[in-house]
Each structure stands twice: as structure tokens, then as C-alpha cells.
UniProtKB/TrEMBL annotation:
MF terms (GO), sorted A to Z: hydrolase activity, acting on carbon-nitrogen (but not peptide) bonds
Organism of derivation: Paenibacillus albiflavus
Residue ranges occupied by any NodB homology domain in the UniProt entry: 87-270
One Pfam family, short name: Polysacc_deac_1
Protein name: Polysaccharide deacetylase
GO biological process terms on file: carbohydrate metabolic process
SUPFAM superfamilies for the chain: Glycoside hydrolase/deacetylase
Length: 288
């Protein structure tokens, strides 16, 4: 009797254990299902994240490839009209050298930007200003000519344009050792260079002309550098811009904001060089 009872007890204990095990298995199965359902519903989100990271990898690869490409290509790619591809702004400064030239050079150096200067013969002849003309070319800037006299009557009415520009270009060569061909006509090529004959003479002399796409009118706002910035912003409409400025104090003061504006808008800063010339003149003469 005793053994029978203990047998029954043992059987009950075994049965209870079995049921506990079954409960554990069922609970485990339920947890597993919940886990799987959760995973299934969150899958699209994870896929998006994965796609995004792939895109980022692609972008990195593309960026790396373009860095390699730009290292291989000797010159900047050009459009059919000879202009560089992408957004490029050329800062140009007329009427120097002046006592401010070194400050312009300091600022440009600080910003790691090269610019194009058009200097006037009468100023180039001042011995104390010549050191900064040389410095400009040594620091990668282009120095072109802006005539000897800056006198409209002499240049355009009396036909001194070519002789004055040639004289100015040789002065630059004497000072810097460079051999520039580019000039900026005082007051622009229109109407001064309207005559076909004078333009033929310019071509014969191997001289190139650059006007501008943006007139900053910096000379007109002596005490208001911000107005120069506004004038330039308003006229910025295309990928390639050439800005007419002068070596004046208000321009120097406006320059950091002008540079910041173009950096923000994704422009590179171009500097003229004779090998990559493209025509830019108000006479629309493609030979110049
Ligand atoms: Zn000028």
C-alpha cells in the first residue's frame, strides 16, 4: 500500500515536470514568434538604412575617382567656347600697382586664392611699387596691362592703344620676368575698340583683350564696402563670372564678403593664364 501510494506520488511529480517542460517550450515558441514578427515588420526600415549607406559609399567612390581624375588631367576641362567647366569666378583688380597692393596680396594669400591684376604703366614705373608686382606673379597671380596713360582720348581717338599696351606689357615683363599678352582696355572695349582696323592691329601685335561680366562699381562707393558686395551679388547670374574691381580701400574691405559669397555658392576662384584664354570682349570679336 505504501509502495502504491509512493508510486502514484512519483507519477504525479513526473507528470507535473512534463507539463512544466511543455509550458517552457510553448512560451519559448511564443517569444520566438513575437521576435520574428517584430523583425519582419522592421525590415523595410533597415533596408532603407542599408541603401543609404550604400549611396554614401558610392558618393565616396565617385569623389575619390574625381580626385584621381583631376590629378591625372593636366589642365582644367574646357567647354566648346574655351571657358572652363563648372562654376568659376575670376577676381580682377585694375589700376595698380598702388600702396595697397601688398594688402590685397596678403588677403588673397590668407584665403588661398589667385587673382588677375591689370596694371597701369605710369604706376609700374614707380620703383617702390615694383616689389609687389613681382610678388604678385610669384604668388600665382596674373599681371596684365591696363595702358600707360589710362587716357581715353589718347588710347581710342589718337590710336595709341596698341603702342601703350605693348609698352605696359614690356614693363611687366621687365619687372616680373613673365611674358603676359592680356590687357584690359580702360573703360572697356566698347565703344573704344569699335573700329575693325584697330582690332586688326591688336591681333597683329599678339595682344588679347578681357572686359568683364560684372561691374562692381567699387570706385563709386568710397565709404560703403557693403554696396560693392550687393552690386556683385545682384549681377551674379552665370557659371563663369569675371568681376571688374579696382585696387581701392573700400574694395579691400569688401573682399572677404565677396569671397565668402562665391565660396558659399560653389564657385572656384580662377586666375587668367595665356594658355587657357577664352574671348571676353564687348565687341564680341572671337579673335581677341
Ligand atoms: Zn582703369
Amino acid at each position: 500500500m505504501k509502495t502504491l501510494r509512493s508510486d502514484i506520488k512519483k507519477r504525479r511529480v513526473r507528470k507535473a515536470r512534463k507539463e512544466r517542460r511543455r509550458l517552457v517550450v510553448i512560451l519559448a515558441a511564443i517569444f520566438l514568434m513575437i521576435f520574428l514578427i517584430g523583425k519582419l515588420t522592421s525590415a523595410p526600415e533597415e533596408e532603407v538604412v542599408a541603401k543609404e549607406s550604400i549611396n554614401q559609399e558610392d558618393a565616396t567612390v565617385v569623389a575619390e575617382e574625381s580626385i584621381i581624375q583631376s590629378a591625372i588631367q593636366p589642365a582644367k576641362q574646357k567647354r566648346p567656347d574655351g571657358k572652363p567647366t563648372g562654376k568659376v569666378v575670376y577676381l580682377t583688380f585694375d589700376d595698380g600697382p598702388t600702396t595697397l597692393t601688398d594688402e590685397f596680396l596678403d588677403l588673397l594669400k590668407e584665403q588661398d586664392i589667385q587673382a588677375t591684376f591689370f596694371m597701369q604703366g605710369i604706376n609700374l614705373q614707380k620703383i617702390d611699387l615694383q616689389e609687389n608686382v613681382k610678388r604678385a606673379t610669384e604668388e600665382g597671380h596674373y599681371v596684365g596691362a591696363h595702358s600707360m596713360t589710362h587716357n581715353s582720348k589718347k588710347l581710342y581717338d589718337n590710336g595709341q592703344f596698341v603702342s601703350e599696351m605693348s609698352e605696359t606689357l614690356s614693363l611687366i615683363q621687365d619687372i616680373t620676368g613673365t611674358n603676359p599678352k592680356l590687357v584690359r582696355p580702360p573703360y572697356g572695349s566698347a565703344p573704344g575698340l569699335k573700329s575693325q582696323q584697330i582690332r586688326n592691329e591688336i591681333i597683329k601685335a599678339g595682344i588679347k583683350i578681357w572686359d568683364w561680366t560684372i561691374d562692381s562699381k567699387d570706385w563709386a562707393v568710397k565709404d560703403n564696402p557693403n554696396q560693392i558686395v550687393e552690386n556683385i551679388k545682384k549681377q551674379t547670374t552665370t557659371d563663369i563670372e569675371v568681376i571688374l574691381m579696382h585696387e581701392q580701400l573700400q574694395t579691400l574691405q569688401a573682399l572677404p564678403k565677396i569671397i565668402a559669397f562665391y565660396k558659399k555658392n560653389g564657385y572656384e576662384f580662377g586666375v587668367y593664364n595665356d594658355a587657357d584664354h577664352f574671348y571676353l570682349n564687348f565687341q564680341n570679336d572671337t579673335r581677341l
